[in-house]
Every structure is written in C-alpha cells, then in structure tokens.
Write a structure and sequence with these properties.
Alpha/beta knot; alpha/beta; single chain; 314 residues; 60s Ribosomal Protein L30, Chain: A; RNA methyltransferase activity
Length: 314
C-alpha cells in the first residue's frame, strides 16, 4: 500500500529527512524582542556617533523667547535720567504708554523736550520684549555700539605733544565702573587715550559710559588683542612704559619719562599687574600708602598717578 512500502523514495513527495530543531531555537528567542538598532548597541560605532551628536545638542545655546539685551541698555527712571544728564549717546529712547507720571518721569520728558530727543512710545509689553524683561519702570535707553579707536591713532596723538604725551593702559580691570572712572580721570589730566585688552577686561558698557560722566565721548579708547605686544610696540616707539605696582621700587614722586610720552599701566586692585606685563614695563612705581591699607582702588590709584605726572610736567 502507498506509504507502507519500504522502497527508497516511496515516502511522501517533497518531505526532507533533515532533522529539525524541534522548536528549540524558536523557544530560545522568545521574549528577547527584535534585534536592536546599530545606534542602540553600546559596542557599535553608530552608538558612539549618536551619543556625540546628543552631547553637542545639549551644549548648544538654547533659544529663548526673550530678546537678548546686551550692555547697551539703560533701564529704570533714575538710571535713565542720570544717563541723559551726563551726556550718554542715545540711539533710541523708549517710554511705555500709560506709564505713571512721577517727578523722575517728568524730568525725563522735560529733558527730552529741551534737547530735541525723540521718545518712542510703545506698549509695556513691547518694552518688556525689547529690554528682555528687565525692570524698566516704563522708560529705557538704547545706546549705540561703542566705536573703539585704533591704538596706532592713540599713539600718534601722544607723539604730537611729546612733552605732554600720555596714554593709560589697563590690565585686568574688569569692573566697568572702574573703567569709566579711569577714562574720566584720563580726560581730566589731558591723556590722549586709554587702551584696554580684549580679554580679562571691562568694555565700554552703559555702566562705564555712565561713570565716565560723558568723558568717553571726548577721549579715544582703543581695544587691543594682545596687551603685551602693544606695550612692546609702545616702548620701541619711544614711550616710557610705567607700571603701577604696590611693591614697585621707584616712588611715584620719582616717576621717570618726564621728557617724553608716557604710557601708564594700571592693574586690577586684587591681582595687580600680570607677570608678563611687568616685564614689559620700563619701571614699576609705587604710591606710598599707610601700612594699615593693603591697596588702593584701581581708579583711585590711576587718578593719583595721573595727577603726579601732570604736576611733574608742570
């Protein structure tokens, strides 16, 4: 009968004699799920590439709905009035619709009218947006970007009056109010300019403008990439480079360089002058102070030194 024959090939057509696994392999894979993607396998290069992309994305600056507000804004009624009175340059003045009138706001409106300063009326929500949510009290000033002078122009101006040539350079002065005060003193004592480094230094922000009491509009300020190279160039050009240092061996009264242009270098109150800056100075001078006081504020020290230079030349 069919199926009972012992002849080779008498079995059911198409049936293989190869032994199966009996479901062993299938059962061993149960519960393991699908094969993970390459980027999810910790040992695969695709995984490392994905993690690196995630790291870069995490470090990327996040977008914000607020407008970024830099240092060229003055907000608040007292700061705005003071900024106007000291002569800060104004790019745009804003006042919020319906802002409550008080003496300060009346003074601001009066100043604007007397000096033909246009005030742009905006909604409070719009003023919130353009100032980045700062507490503006209904008024704000936007200052124009400060235009720094080329340091070569500052040096040239000093050489035009060689017996009176005077430039101030700052090293590590990071407080914008100190910067503004030094600019004010430099202008008061006839300096031809102020030099600041691009790094580790305050810039011409609204606070510096305000503290300078408008002097920043009358005296050039140069920003340099490398202060040490600038000092070396100044020395090669004929400047006497003098650094203020508490441990200086030369007293301020014996300040050298009275016959030619002087470049006075002022360091920060805490750190003083950097080592390389000291090495590029022709002399380190000290201001004699009582032993009970460790140091002077940078702007105060600069004012004293500038006064002494002026007195010696007079």
């Amino acid at each position: 009968m069919p199926g009972n024959s012992q002849r080779r090939g008498a079995g059911r057509r198409g049936r293989s004699n190869t032994a199966g696994s009996g479901g062993r392999i299938r059962r061993s894979l149960e519960g393991r799920g699908p094969t993970p993607k390459a980027e999810d396998r910790v040992y695969h290069k695709a995984y490392k590439a994905k993690q690196e992309a995630l790291r870069r994305q995490a470090n990327r600056p996040r977008k914000t709905t607020r407008t970024a507000v830099g240092a060229d804004w003055v907000v608040g009624r007292n700061p705005v009035l003071e900024a106007l009175e000291v002569g800060l340059p104004v790019k745009q003045a804003y006042v919020a619709d319906g802002a409550e009138r008080d003496d300060r706001l009346r003074d601001i409106l009066k100043f604007a009218a007397e000096h033909s300063l246009p005030l742009l009326q905006v909604t409070r929500a719009e003023l919130d947006r353009v100032t980045g949510g700062l507490v503006h009290q209904g008024v704000a000033l936007q200052l124009p970007a400060f235009e720094y002078t080329d340091v070569e122009d500052v040096f040239d101006a000093a050489f035009e009056v060689p017996s009176q040539g005077l430039v101030v350079a700052l090293d590590g002065v990071t407080d914008p109010r100190n910067l503004g005060a030094i600019i004010r003193s430099a202008a008061a004592f006839g300096a031809q300019g102020v030099v600041i480094p691009a790094r580790r230094s305050a810039s011409m922000t609204a606070a510096a403008w305000k503290t300078s009491a408008g002097a920043a509009a009358r005296i050039p300020v140069a920003k340099v990439t490398n202060l040490n190279q600038t000092l070396r160039k100044a020395s090669d050009a004929g400047f006497t480079v003098v650094g203020l240092a508490g441990e200086g061996e030369t007293p301020l009264s014996a300040l050298p360089g009275g016959e030619g242009p002087v470049l006075l270098v002022v360091g920060s109150e805490g750190e003083g002058l950097a080592r390389l800056v000291r090495e590029h100075c022709d002399a380190l001078v000290a201001i004699p102070i009582a032993s009970t006081v460790e140091s002077l504020n940078a702007s105060v020290a600069a004012s004293i030194a500038l006064y002494e230079i002026t007195q010696q030349r007079t």
